[in-house]
Amino acid sequence: MIEVIDAERCTSCDICVNVCPTNVFDKTDGIPVIARQSDCQTCFLCELYCPEDALYVAPHADTPCPTDVVALRETAALGSYRRAVGWTDETRDLRGIDRSYLLFGH
Amino acid sequence: MTTNDRRAEQRPAPGGSVEFDADVLVIGGGPAGTWAAVSAAERGARVVLADKGFCGTSGATAAAGTGVWYVDPDPALREAAMANREKLGGHLQNRRWMARVLDQTYQDSNRLAAWGYPYPVDDSGKPQRNSLQGPEYMRLMRKRTKQAGVTILDHSPALELLVDDDGAVAGASGVRRQKHDRWTVRAKAVVIATGGCAFLSRTLGSNVLTGDGYLMAAEVGAEFSSMEFSNAYAISPAFGSVTKTLFYGWATFSYEDGSVVPGAASKGGRSAIARALLQGPVYARLDKADGNVQRDMRASQPNFFLPFDRTAIDPFRDRFPVTLRLEGTVRGTGGLRIVDDSCATSVPGLYAAGDAATRELICGGFTGGGSHNAAWAMSSGTWAGWGAADFARQLGPARQRHLASAGTVAFRSRSNRPLEPAVLAKAVQDEVYPYELNYFRHASRLDGALARLDAAWVDVSAADAASKDDLLRARESAAMLATSRWMYRSALARYESRGMHRRDDYPDQDDRQRHYVTSGGLDEVWTAVRPHADASYAEAAE
Ligand SMILES: Cc1cc2nc3c(=O)[nH]c(=O)nc-3n(C[C@H](O)[C@H](O)[C@H](O)COP(=O)(O)OP(=O)(O)OC[C@H]3O[C@@H](n4cnc5c(N)ncnc54)[C@H](O)[C@@H]3O)c2cc1C
Ligand code: SF4
Ligand code: SF4
């Protein structure tokens, strides 16, 4: 489930509020809040759309998994999914490297 | 690409609501809904698309990504592709529809390429178009839907259909959950593309899929088909949501003590995993993937690795616990019955596409994923969009029609007993999740479950109307309840095992039951049997 909005990175653009399919976030005057964490479906899509890599979704689907943002910044986790699918400028080339055709029919 | 400068018209509306006049309303903005919207707009229709979530991220495809049944138009390849899955599907497919879907999927995929989808190219320089990355694909579909002149309403779940005096479907209404108001779209035709029903099991991307379109369609009298084929379960790490199963083809499954689960496999051995899970935890390790395969896996499905990378599990070396999450009709094949080539339902003005429609025509009684669903979503979406646009055109200029709301449960106040959505959803889950009820079916167990579900329906039909804040959740849980009853009533009407429908009390496939089970009804759920096309041709020839 969604665990972290990194207040240091977030620019309050509200994109995550818009794109979350299950309406987990609420707008505020400042940075959005995780208003309905238990509705989170652990789809990781808010991470992909956050231009600042300010969001972190823990992979645990059924239970919250409190995550320390300071420790998280030490890892490469923030933005890792966005980089892996090629949705950052530096990783654009990864958009076209799907090799599923080699794996189907196994 | 024709751009449509005829947009749906916003009409003045009382405070707290917005209203649109359109030719076609598409409900649901996954692949089926976006293809329907684009196709209808390209035929000149004024189109509104309403999605519960955000068109582009919502639904099973956006989060998961899909293999696609894309086969070059070489007769031998096409023949092999059609023959390949017939046995698995219990010979309930229809060759004519399979051929149509292969053709349409080929054309639609090639349009995606022309629109800029970054398909990979293999070592020989040939483009490979049998896989789509979910976020990339659906971001592109949102863009094309907008460019086609479609008005998109995000965070706008439809709650009930509108009908005219003749019972034809003429629009829908719902809520805008971020604006806290209501929407109404008057339309000459409606496409239901709300996906399947995965019963809030947290399988990837599917918690928006609660069978809402089924409930709305049933309220105007639509019929269902193949609802017994609704017990798809998918493998995921026990703690996680990522139910992507392809890579488990390289897994070894083991018990707690490390010994191998006999017969367990992702394909053709999933029931062995379910039986083992009834005894205790089951573990997997992708130990059959060599270095090259591991690299290709990472390149192909970055989301598969998120649960592992974020918990410091090396899935190729470490054993990790797995579970099976119910995907219901998302990777089942049941849904709204299609009555003609334009994906019309049995109700005038109402069309169905994608997982909301039955996939029996190309999948029969089985689809564990593996590309047919995605092919069906784009093909049926394209046809339903054209069909709805043509229907709207035939209806002519907007006559003043008298419209009525068709919603039942959660709208009608009957007593002072509150409808509690979370309690109801849990009650349904308790009847549909357990492997011993739904994976391994038996009349004695299904009878009990159905009796409890029927009683729950009586109860919720008599409950108080839901409050404004609870309305969406109330309708979602009522839709799950209705779905479970078509599912189990149909399961009881098939006295054999076929496709994914597995009866402990009738373990064999029975040649005399190579037919479809139709179902419907809300207060009284009914089933009936329809012959498979081959059978009716055979009779006609006699
Ligand atoms: C993990 C996973 C992997 C899969 N892999 C494959 C694969 O490899 N190959 C394959 O062929 N298939 C696969 N599938 C199945 C495939 O994803 C679906 O068949 C496909 O997404 C169906 O498209 P759809 O447009 O009908 O539904 P969806 O993509 O589910 O979209 C439905 C849309 O309807 C909206 N909606 C729901 N209710 C309402 C309402 N009341 N009002 C308005 N909008 C509403 C939702 O928000 C959603 O946007 C997979 C599914 C899953 C879950
Ligand atoms: S998308 Fe990212 S930057 Fe924008 S509001 Fe959300 S968390 Fe902040
Ligand atoms: S993971 Fe998905 S459901 Fe959860 S907050 Fe992010 S976008 Fe929303």
Description:
- The complex is a heterodimer of chains A (106) and B (542).
- Chain A is 24% helix and 10% strand.
- Chain A has 106 residues and is α+β, with helices and mostly antiparallel strands.
- Chain A has one domain (2-103): Alpha-Beta Plaits, CATH 3.30.70.
- In chain A, the strands form two sheets. A two-stranded antiparallel sheet of chain A has the order 1-4.
- The radius of gyration of chain A is 15 Å and the shape is globular.
- The mean pLDDT of chain A is 97.
- With 542 residues, chain B is α+β, with helices and mostly antiparallel strands.
- Chain B folds into three domains: 9-226 and 333-405, 3-Layer(bba) Sandwich (FAD/NAD(P)-binding domain), CATH 3.50.50.60; 234-328, Flavocytochrome C3, Chain A, domain 1, CATH 3.90.700.10; 421-536, Up-down Bundle (Methane Monooxygenase Hydroxylase, Chain G, domain 1), CATH 1.20.58.100.
- In chain B, 35% of the residues lie in helices and 17% in strands.
- Chain B contains 16 helices and 21 strands.
- In chain B, the strands form five sheets. Chain B has a six-stranded mixed β-sheet with strand order 1-2-10-9-8-19. Chain B has a five-stranded parallel β-sheet with strand order 7-4-3-11-18, with helices on both faces.
- In chain B, a hairpin with a 4-residue loop joins strand 9 and strand 10 (181-186).
- In chain B, helix 6 crosses helix 15, helix 12 (421-432) runs antiparallel to helix 14 (443-461) and helix 14 (443-461) packs antiparallel against helix 15.
- Chain B is globular and about 70 Å long.
- The chains are: A alpha+beta (106), B alpha+beta (542).
- Chains A and B meet through helix 1, helix 2, helix 4 and helix 5 of A and helix 8 and helix 9 of B.
- The complex binds flavin-adenine dinucleotide (FAD) and iron/sulfur cluster (2 copies).
- One iron/sulfur cluster is lined by residues 5, 10-16, 31-32, 50, 52, 54-55 of chain A.
